[in-house]
Amino acid sequence: xxxxxxxxxxxxxxxxxxxxxxxxxxxxxxxxxxxxxxxxxxxxxxxxxxxxxxxxxxxxxxxxxxxxxxxxxxxxxxxxxxxxxxxxxxxxxxxxxxxxxxxxxxxxxxxxxxxxxxxxxxxxxxxxxxxxxxxxxxxxxxxxxxxxxxxxxxxxxxxxxxxxxxxxxxxxxxxxxxxxxxxxxxxxxxxxxxxxxxxxxxxxxxxxxxxxxxxxxxxxxxxxxxxxxxxxxxxxxxxxxxxxxxxxxxxxxxxxxxxxxxxxxxxx
Amino acid sequence: xxxxxxxxxxxxxxxxxxxxxxxxxxxxxxxxxxxxxxxxxxxxxxxxxxxxxxxxxxxxxxxxxxxxxxxxxxxxxxxxxxxxxxxxxxxxxxxxxxxxxxxxxxxxxxxxxxxxxxxxxxxxxxxxxxxxxxxxxxxxxxxxxxxxxxxxxxxxxxxxxxxxxxxxxxxxxxxxxxxxxxxxxxxxxxxxxxxxxx
Lengths: 268, 198
Prior knowledge:
The structure holds 2 protein chains of 2 kinds.
Chain A: H1 3-14, H2 20-32, H3 34-45, H4 58-74, H5 80-92, H6 98-121, H7 127-148, H8 154-164, H9 172-184, H10 188-199, H11 205-217, H12 221-234, H13 239-247, H14 254-267
Chain B: H1 6-14, H2 21-40, H3 43-60, H4 70-88, H5 109-124, H6 127-138, H7 143-150, H8 154-176
């Protein structure tokens, strides 16, 4: 047995994952081949590397985050009037709900099937065709994201947001839907996830503007703090002014007020 | 020992019991920290990233699907967090060799010397190769799970592990023979400059 054949078996051999007969074959080869034996030797030597020294207070830091998170979630979310206003808005999109989502999924599956079949049937596939197919597939996925963002269940909307992160570029409609989610979704986690997703598209002026505007209307302290951090990272030119406006709000959560103060100092 | 499965705990977190995430934190903090520190070499950044991973789990907990194996899932989040970190902070060229073993017991001088050379050899590999070796050797992931993480075939993973191991071996033997190693300082306590609490 030569080194090439051994190479296929070696990774499993290293972990003791080969059945006896093959393991013996590898061992016989190792007796004769110094290089392969040396590979095994170095693999075993890796055990000598000590674990990196951990950082102190790690758990305390996590506990603080967890507590802040729970406290943030316990805050009342929307005043009754806002909740009432939200209902009709959702209804507009009713038609987009389940049947459309199912349709989008099946279209996406179709596209994937076509894409795969296309690749298999023609051995010399043209890169241009592939590029077109990829871009079509990408719009399909974005369609799926759009419909998932309209779902009733928070976990499906959350999945829609994570799904959007698979695309390097997003259509303006999808970005607009994510911004809408950031401002109006009833669930804090979905709003936070939408902010995460949007932060990857800071090159789009529409995104920067939308995220900046979201600061004023946001009710959840958690999202407010995340927004402040994001805008600080972007070095938004108007941030100091906007933070001062925010601080003027009478019922502002003390944690948010403190964060705004901290951010203002950071800018200067 | 009768441990509750990670997946069971994660389902509890998903259903609103955030406190339970503390148990998962205790189980996964060290492996994740080691993963980042071995790969990126900066303990401060590694710790920040571990915290980020758990914050993301909190935020995305409802996207955890019952039946999803937890370990590959958390490593997927860990890899994404690292990529986002690189996007925000473009890679520094020089690798900080600060997680070199602090002080070895004197009777293990030979072993310490080997570990040090091996560590330096590992740092010479491109990050992709270093990552796959770390995932395969230290992180208790099945090859199939690594394939899922990296988005490639099982056989590709095995080939890549083997190639990375060959490169590591060559780099290690070169260093052993005293060949010049690029960008690596001498072994010793002076390498561990940045400590905890920076």
